[in-house]
């Protein structure tokens, strides 16, 4: 194996050197070595991609759909996304210039932040939040401003937002909102979003809204800031969660043309264009598979309700998730707030893998995240192992 030449000029991005690797992946890799462990660590749906969507991929292969496509994505797919967003958000996005097909929602977020931030710009992020937002903001040269929502049932209030904007001063440029939220499963009512929209509008912020879990809401319809202040919103979504297409890496961005022009430039430099066959699958999903998520949603809701009862019985304090497929549970008081130590001990002794809450930012200490995107059988076994773990400690 070749060794790096010791005489090479100094290498390494100085910004990247200050950023730790993904804590979620790192912890998952660490405990994956434990024999017999059941992991509820990653947001990976356990369902198969719907058959008619897979058949669209096969048709694409047979048609030799293997050449470069438009950087922004196939026009037919952008038209399907526009029609879907018109139906679900009531916003008219122009397929040419206002919609980009991306390599998953992850690339969508990266391209948006790189294209829109300048060094030192501040990005407000309500926490707990998906840790990718922190790292991608920093890689783009921005500064993360966490807004701890643990005192308000993990729901950002207009008052909290106003205080954070004022404290950040003129460098406050954007806010990242994820609803339903990873890791808490919390989402927003129409009234709650309208109140936040007033503050965002008053202070002329850009809202980057990650709505990847929008089809997996349980207790009320999904609401979107894009419906309220479309001129200040970049909407992020995709097919990974709604159609169990995580490996297809199919996401998209929608927003005002003047904003999207900057993001499109970055996107074209990062990936050139998205895989044609994944786009064929997405066209099928968005034109003939809009009802596919219903089956998934009902299963997730059933699993949520089962785990909520089991965890409460064991002494966990849990905020009721309203969407996505995560539970963010406060560990019993007798274990203190060292969620990493608790999660490691649980993995070793009970052979159950959960993500320590601290990786999700301010206000997350003393919690663990469970993904219930797993089979009923696995969840039943996890509940059994957890009960035995606590019984052994009694």
Automatic annotation (TrEMBL):
InterPro entries: Aminotransferase_I/II_large, AspAT/PAT-like, NHTrfase_class1_PyrdxlP-BS, PyrdxlP-dep_Trfase, PyrdxlP-dep_Trfase_major, PyrdxlP-dep_Trfase_small. The keyword Transferase applies. It is an enzyme of class 2 (transferase). The keyword Transferase applies. Signal peptide: none annotated. One of its GO terms (molecular function) is pyridoxal phosphate binding. One of its GO terms (biological process) is amino acid metabolic process. Its EC number is 2.6.1.-. Its cofactor is pyridoxal 5'-phosphate. Keywords: Aminotransferase, Pyridoxal phosphate, Transferase. It holds the Pfam family Aminotran_1_2. CDD domains: AAT_like. Residues 37-385 form the Aminotransferase class I/classII large domain. Belongs to the class-I pyridoxal-phosphate-dependent aminotransferase family. This is Aminotransferase. It comes from Lactobacillus equicursoris DSM 19284 = JCM 14600 = CIP 110162.
């Amino acid at each position: 194996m070749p060794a790096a030449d010791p005489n090479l000029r100094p290498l390494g991005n100085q910004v990247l050197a200050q950023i730790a690797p993904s804590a979620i992946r790192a912890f998952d890799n660490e405990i994956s070595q434990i024999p017999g462990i059941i992991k509820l660590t990653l947001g990976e749906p356990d369902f198969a991609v719907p058959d008619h969507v897979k058949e669209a991929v096969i048709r694409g292969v047979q048609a030799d759909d293997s050449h470069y496509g438009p950087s922004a994505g196939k026009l037919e797919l952008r038209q399907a996304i526009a029609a879907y967003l018109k139906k679900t958000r009531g916003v008219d996005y122009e397929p040419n210039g206002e919609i980009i097909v991306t390599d998953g929602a992850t690339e969508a977020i990266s391209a948006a932040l790189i294209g829109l931030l300048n060094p030192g710009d501040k990005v407000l992020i309500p926490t707990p939040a998906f840790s990718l937002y922190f790292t991608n903001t920093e890689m783009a040269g921005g500064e993360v401003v966490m807004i701890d929502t643990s005192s308000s049932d993990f729901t950002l209030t207009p008052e909290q937002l106003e205080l954070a904007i004022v404290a950040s001063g003129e460098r406050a440029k954007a806010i990242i909102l994820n609803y339903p939220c990873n890791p808490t499963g919390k989402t927003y009512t129409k009234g709650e979003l309208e109140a936040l929209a007033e503050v965002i509008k008053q202070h002329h912020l850009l809202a980057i809204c990650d709505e990847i879990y929008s089809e997996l809401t349980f207790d009320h319809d999904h609401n979107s800031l894009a419906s309220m202040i479309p001129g200040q919103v970049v909407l992020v979504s995709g097919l990974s969660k709604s159609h169990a297409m995580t490996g297809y890496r199919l996401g998209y961005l929608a927003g005002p043309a003047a904003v999207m022009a900057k993001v499109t430039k970055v996107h074209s430099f990062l990936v050139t264009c998205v895989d044609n066959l994944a786009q064929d699958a997405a066209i099928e999903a968005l034109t003939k598979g809009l009802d596919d998520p219903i089956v998934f949603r009902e299963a997730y809701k059933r699993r949520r309700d089962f785990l909520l009862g089991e965890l409460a019985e064991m002494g966990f304090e849990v905020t009721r998730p309203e969407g996505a497929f995560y539970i963010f549970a406060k560990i019993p008081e007798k274990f203190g707030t060292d969620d990493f130590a608790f999660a490691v001990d649980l993995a070793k002794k009970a052979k159950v893998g959960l993500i320590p809450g601290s990786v999700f930012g301010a206000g997350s200490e003393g919690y663990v995240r469970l993904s219930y995107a797993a089979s009923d059988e696995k969840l039943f076994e996890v509940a059994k192992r957890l009960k035995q773990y606590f019984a052994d400690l009694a």
